[in-house]
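Protein 1 of 2
SEQ + STRUCT:
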Amino acid sequence: MSSLDFAQFTTVPGSGQFYSLTSTELESREIATGYAQRQDASAITQNTRRGPGLGTILGIFDLLSGVLDLTSSALSSPSPVPQRVKHRITFKNDADIILVPGQVNVPAGYVYNSAPKILFPGEVCVFSESHLPHQTSSERLSFSFGAISTDEDILLPQTPSGQADVFPFEVHIGRDANNVFFERVHGFVGDSHAVHNFTVRRVTGGDMRVARLAYVGFRGFGGTTMPSFGIAVVQTLVALAAGTTMGTQVTFTPLNLRA
């Protein structure tokens, strides 16, 4: 039985499928499998293939804690911006893709002086904005990217033009009165536009160390050079006091699966 049997998914015609899994256990297993397959591939020759050594992974959440920085991303800390709340969003590219940033959209009253940069596999960049305390809770940030696969198995054979496909998409980071969360993802190919929304897992209470994992996978269609990758975001509580900084991490994870 495929993991997609336990998924909510949206199809981008001619491109692939966005999907979110129905439990943290399934999300964690898929993320861990992607990293394990990469580790196995680096340990074998090109002439030898075997299944992922998942038995060598002693704890899925131990792996995730290192990859996604679950604790540090949930904490608020002193900010150098007086009278405002600072929000640092870290983008980490662990997937087999090159990410080319496009447009950044921020609500009225938000100020930022840095934007995402081109991310090659293994690279990290930070977006930083500041806003007044108790800013309207329903507002969101959105970031657009073009993703190009670097996976040799996907790139062979190439398209008739000799160039890999580019998949444009947007990541929306939303907030309510208590939580910062992965709200939705948009995919665009030609005239096609698909939106995948997420069910928010509520985080309540006064402990800023509480965090939840939200994940979406994108599987490019077989026979295309569209990339396959995951997007993992740690959902956290908002910081409301002036002069504090909160952090969110968006990790693009490896995914060796095709739609």
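Protein 2 of 2
SEQ + STRUCT:
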Amino acid sequence: MLELLLFQYKENFGEDFPLAEFEGRQEYEVINILYDCIMNNVRYDPNRKVENRIMDAPGMNK
């Protein structure tokens, strides 16, 4: 799932997602940030609150 979202982000914005900034964070957090960027058609901004989440993202507690 992460790889697909990274690909979609690059397709949408013409640049790679700054994945290195998320070293040490849970995969589901990165997935939700990517998903939110893609759904709202906005580049990543560390000051923006995530509005859209994938509730069954890998590693997420259910």
